[in-house]
Design goal:
Strand content: 5-15%
Order of helices and strands: EEEHHHHHHHHHH
Strand order of the largest sheet: 1-2-3
Radius of gyration: 26 Å
Distance between the termini: 72 Å
Shape: elongated
Helix content: 55-70%
Largest sheet: 3 strands, antiparallel
Length: 205
């Protein structure tokens, strides 16, 4: 087939036209490095290789862009790349490579994220476990990370009291505020027993 035209598009893409018809969009840098020009002949295998190289490069570039802004778990990174920039296969390959060279580390990510959830967001252990799992962290790593927070019972009481003071200051006098506070604290990952220990006198309904 003949490359009849190559036109620039947004997001650093180049639209190829093959035999006069629109073909795939290729990463512009990959296209320029190929040294192809209108009038050149392209075989099916050459075109497939060009598309795959474009996909791989866009996945790598997107991965590095995301990591510049904050750390990610491997699954989270893979899903974001696949959703916005490249195929699932290219996204997985990019995440695998970054894991191999140490730029993606699920254990380090889990430790940092758990600390943020416990200390800044005042989550309970149950909610922290849920959030780590949602990020794609494996159960073994979650268990290892949460072992460091086994002494959180005292901190749980302090966090519950702080949430009550900041968000539900009238909970002692207002039954509706009291019920909202109990529901909110359970959503934050605290058990009913932990909440009752701080608020006292709660029924089980």
């Amino acid at each position: 087939m003949e490359l009849t035209a190559a036109e620039p598009r947004r997001k650093h893409l180049t639209q190829l036209y093959l035999d006069g018809e629109p073909g795939p969009k290729i990463d512009t840098e990959v296209f320029l490095l190929s040294r192809l020009k209108p009038g050149d002949e392209l075989g099916e295998e050459e075109l497939r290789a060009l598309v795959e190289e474009s996909d791989a490069r866009r996945a790598r570039e997107k991965a590095l862009y995301l990591l510049e802004h904050r750390s990610h778990s491997k699954r989270e990174l893979t899903e974001k790349i696949a959703r916005t920039a490249a195929s699932r296969e290219a996204a997985q390959a990019a995440a695998d490579h970054l894991e191999e060279i140490g730029l993606v580390d699920d254990r380090a990510f889990a430790e940092t994220y758990a600390r943020e959830l416990f200390q800044r967001k005042r989550y309970g252990a149950r909610r922290v476990r849920q959030e780590l799992s949602r990020k794609g962290i494996g159960r073994d790593i979650i268990d290892q990370v949460l072992e460091q927070y086994q002494d959180m019972d005292q901190a749980a009481g302090e966090n519950i009291a702080l949430v009550l003071e900041r968000r539900y200051p009238t909970w002692r006098e207002d039954e509706k505020a009291r019920r909202r506070a109990v529901a909110a604290l359970q959503r934050l990952g605290y058990s009913f027993e932990q909440v009752r220990a701080v608020m006292g006198g709660l029924d089980t309904e």
